[in-house]
Amino acid sequence: MNPLIYFEVRNLSVRLGGRLVLKNVSFGAPCGALFALVGPSGAGKTTLLRAAAGLTPSEGQILVGDEDVSALSIRQRAQRFAYVPQSDAISWPLPVRDVVALGRYPHGASRPDRLSARDAEAVERAIAEGGLQAIADRPVTELSGGERRRVAVARALATEAPILFADEPTASVDPHYQLSIMSLLRRQAQHGALVFVVTHDLGVAARFADRALILKDGELESVGPSDAVFASKQLADVFAIDIFRCDYASEHVIVPWAAR
Amino acid sequence: MRSSERSLLIPLLLSLVGALFLASLCIGPARLAVSAVVEALFGGGTQTQRAIVQEIRLPRALLAATIGAMHGLSGAALQGLLRNPLAAPSLFGAPQAAAFGAVLAIATGMAGALSFALPLSAIVMAFISAFILIAIVGRDSSLLLLILAGLALSSLAGAATALALNLASNPFAALEISFWLLGSLDDRSFRHVLLAWPFMAAGAWLLYRRRDAFRVLSLGEEAARSLGVDVAMLRLQVIFGVALGVGASVAVSGTIGFIGLVAPHLMRPLVGHDPGRLLLPSSLSGAALLTAADIATRLIPSSSGIRVGVLTALIGVPFFLYMVFRQRRGLGVAVA
Description:
By secondary structure, chain A is an alpha/beta fold. Chain A contains nine helices and twelve strands.
């Protein structure tokens, strides 16, 4: 992985149905970081994620390294950005391994049963990283919500894209899966990937992210190292809550305490 | 099914279609032995046998196989696009709209003046109906929306056809049109084959070349787009491919429904529910189904001959009801 890749968004605006839902957002991110995107419902987190991944038409500029994303073909973009959508519903009962293998589609692997050695290796690695070996041959439609989430993340990992976007990967899954999914994403960041995670779980975000961004009403409220962002008074103000903070095992812990 | 077993599927289906095709050449008012048919096909036998096999039964069998294949392929492609096993051309009003287009061409006399006016008019109407349907259903492809919009479109196409019949100046022409609408492969010649095949081939090519995109689309539109599938383009190609294939089919055979619903359903478990691998088996089983149905119309004793479109609907509609029954939980959620 190229350590020089630097992701940057300049004056990003998105209009949905004539309404400006994202207003002039600019920020940059180094690789090898886990970036948490937080903000109240309707603040534009998913829109920012989709626009940054090039899935929604936007105004402004998105740069990866020194490349402008608008100049990339749809396939080149798919090789650089992996995306885990909010919904992990899969329409047909395909086996887990075949679903993960779809992550190789941007690299020209169109049939899961005819992968090149290189593609098969990436798929097996993603299955191992996602801890899915035991269920690799089961149909995805039979899995629990937490397992399906992990399959979706593993499918994104199989892409081997340097930048990974995950939209609420820990929503409505039990604490075990929340922690295991966040550790999995954290590991990707440690290995040099740039990972963006939209989440409503401030505690999880504060523990696992090393950078954070707060959105409110489509505007960038705050961005920086997560310790600073999560310690700020802004975080409590944006959500209109009181936050309990303490230290445990030499880490900062924050707990949303009471609605104001 | 393991992959070794799966690799047998296509040869098995091909031999089934081949056997039915041969049977279709043997069966009719004058029964011919397989040896006589083979002889006649290659220019042997008596002149009568050659005329029966080459000019009467061969074009009919070719049309049954290819139209069946086109319906099976269109059904599999639409189900892949909309990620729904209940999607099929006949539920969308595409054949009904194509029939309206064809009737319009016949009633206005365009079809008499220009032979390609008939399939073209059918294709254009099928395209319009499929386009409207996809525009209404949009991204969420909910079952309820799909079925309601399809119902509305096929009713509208039916009403428009009825209006064309209503206004037809010649009552005999009206009668002829309404019989034609029932769907039949009787008395078709190579002229019909040549009329339909170029459009069907183009439609089949458009659908078949996007087979891998349907597999990626199983993940949902957003994930598919993030993996590099141009979903808007795919949608347009499928509409266009289905309209070309189904429109051209309807132009020569009238409305033949439900092959597109049944064929993919039968094949899906045999290909591991993979929408990308479904297209070829689904077209082959569609070919087998329609050829078998066309043979059945010749075997069932009746005074005036049963129309193949009537037969496929009689078998297909109960099958559709059964599938709706199985999906009723999904429908219930959509209603709530």
